[in-house]
## 1
Amino acid sequence: MQEKYAPLFEPIELKHGGRLRNRFGMCPMVVFAADPATGNPTEEDIKYFERRSKFADLLLTGAITVQENIQGHPKQLALYNDDAIEAYSKLAAAMKSNGSKAIGQIQHPGREGAYGCYVTGKAYAPSAIEFPFLQYKVTELTEDEVWQVVKDFGLAAQRLLKAGFDGVEIHGANHYLIQQFFSSYSNQREDYWGGSFEKRMNFAIEVTKEVLKAARAENPDAIVGYRISPEEIHGEMVGYDLDDSLKLIDKLLEQDLDFLDLSSAAGGNFGKDAYKAMPQKGDYTEPASLVIKNFVAVRVPVVVSGTIRSANEALDALKYGDVASMGVAALSDPDFKEKILADKEDTIHMNVKGHTDDLELPSGLVEVYTAGIGLPQVEGLVEK
Ligand SMILES: Cc1cc2nc3c(=O)[nH]c(=O)nc-3n(C[C@H](O)[C@H](O)[C@H](O)COP(=O)(O)O)c2cc1C
């Protein structure tokens, strides 16, 4: 290995669950392989993760919904009863087969539950607003239903730990339900869950409390992380800005979290250097990720992600965070880290064309890309 890459292989201690042996992360990615009836992981999920078990020490599943029939996508993972634990234990074992940490990302898509809406006719949201970008109407969650979602996040966390996962990540990013509650654009409630900035934080805080309680009751050493999108700004529409995020992060870190994961490429921001994108609002002179890293200081490790596409970019990303996490790179080259170790980083594939047989990519993932939905581009996945 070239000496300059040594920082990528420095271990880092987590408050719970031991240490990460290196600074590589694998981003959470829905790969459209779950059993369509139950949402359980299938053989395809297991093979996909076995192939990626050496990609990073911090391995994340794609978003797992915490209730039945609320998925954003067909074949998205779901976990809402004990019967599923056996199937999830096989997935945990595949992820841990080379000593990496298996982390399940838990999610409620809220208004983005398009597939659930297709199945049941309903998608749920903090407020029943007519969203111009949705082709269906949303149903407002009642106060009791919101508390039920909070409980179901905890139950999903507990089940993942029972299945042998090392921990969970709360999906508070990418415009899904937790972010919808935090957003002044999406949350127009006037109860405990909205009506002021403080109250718009309540859902994120209550979910985090519940997940920490449930996870640590199951395993005192459970790793619990939180994923956040640094800003919600689309032109004139500002759900929240980086100042707001810092306030939420401060509140969340009053609790015993183990890492903070920044989702810096979403909402179409799939361009170059997303991991070090400048904030869109405010008088900042540094990238959003660096502002957050400095703000968090040493309280917890910060995971950065977004268009990290080469060994040099992974190294560069460590200026902005403690772990460099990759999505598309994990799809196109599961041997990314091994190639750096073997001094062969110039052979890392960022194009899947011609070697897909070796990648164990689920067929549903290829189908979704062929249908052309708005996901980051994976070069060569779709025949042109
Ligand atoms: C196929 C695919 C599925 C994704 N699913 C999720 C998901 O389930 N949860 C999530 O937080 N982000 C999801 N993302 C976003 C990634 O985690 C990541 O933030 C994004 O791809 C940017 O990183 P990259 O440029 O290294 O791919 C997904 C991305 C891709 C490509």
Note: The chain has a mean pLDDT of 96.
## 2
Amino acid sequence: MSDVDGVAAAPRTSLAELTTLRIGGRPRALLECSTAEGVAESVRALDAADRPVLVLGGGSNLVVAGGDLDLVVVAVRNREVEYLDEADALIVRAGAGLTWDELVADTVGRGYGGLECLSGIPGSVGATPVQNVGAYGVEVAQVLHRVRWYDRATGADEWVTPDALGLAYRTSVLKNSDRAVVLEVEFRLDRAGRSEPIRYAELAGRLGVEPGERTDPALVRHTVLELRRGKGMVLDDDDEDTWSAGSFFTNPVVRDEDLPAVRSRVAGRLGDGPAGQMPAFAATGGTKLSAGWLIERAGFGKGYPSSSSPARLSTKHTLALTNRGEATADDVIALAREVRDGVREAFGVELHPEPVWVGCSI
Ligand SMILES: Cc1cc2nc3c(=O)[nH]c(=O)nc-3n(C[C@H](O)[C@H](O)[C@H](O)COP(=O)(O)OP(=O)(O)OC[C@H]3O[C@@H](n4cnc5c(N)ncnc54)[C@H](O)[C@@H]3O)c2cc1C
């Protein structure tokens, strides 16, 4: 395999060293692929040999089991960037292995709008469509132009439009599936230098704009990074609150007919005031609640369970499960189960994990 151009067999590093949660055992092999063709050829050959594969970007959305892992890691590392001036839009095309925030910084630095609200999200460009990353009122679906993928069923290396991806809240046809590997991604930018409309109330407030207004992308980027750092949501080797997989649970969507029962459980536990103030937003399929709010109100406060636990909730944000350096996969999984079960018991709401699980499950 290492004879293929753009593919190098790397030392058998553990996944703990390649993931932001810093847990995970040793794969059979690690292939570092610095070209799109190298990525596609590696996955094609491994699929043909029926070998289990983990396609890896920045490792920021993974919970990986410990021990010896029966899989080969294909690390996507192609990082080229190209700006394409098309008649109706300015497009940026980036290699899937480029660090996402480097791309955001480059576009904003050139004065282009579009990606600024997604500043500071860890991981690679190629993973952004996988779970339709989103933050501060913007999802990647809104700015995605096309994706070049290697289709693992047909063997085609082709460009597809977003409608092929089944993008929805924190998911797509690529998430938890072997459907395809993303090789390159194109995003639409605003060449006039206007940000996406600012929809997120906290961000609009900080920027001093009305919700829905557009403003200077550089200012938005600066403000988003500031907000994210305050919540431990920008990777920082010196801040253990960021040693996580980001938000561990998605915000649950409850059917509208089930909402009164949830409110009454909240009122029974916390009183009518909090029940009335529970964050709730209209969403596809019902009403979206705040996972972080429910976790905290179910008794799992910041830093839970204690300052000596190897796996604990972030001290800045209850939605992030963190490894303080010594945690094993089992420690993280036990805490995740405790939080999920506690919220179900308290309010009758089921939380679903956001990261991808490898060799283990909640
Ligand atoms: C501190 C922190 C904050 C975060 N904040 C946010 C946030 O605000 N919003 C948000 O949406 N997410 C957030 N995340 C989650 C995470 O950063 C994103 O999901 C990110 O897109 C994952 O990218 P990655 O390259 O690290 O993917 P990895 O963790 O390497 O992989 C995740 C999944 O994607 C697959 N994958 C990776 N690359 C490819 C590819 N090229 N082709 C096909 N499949 C691929 C992998 O096989 C795996 O199944 C956060 C995470 C952390 C640690």
Note: The mean pLDDT is 96.
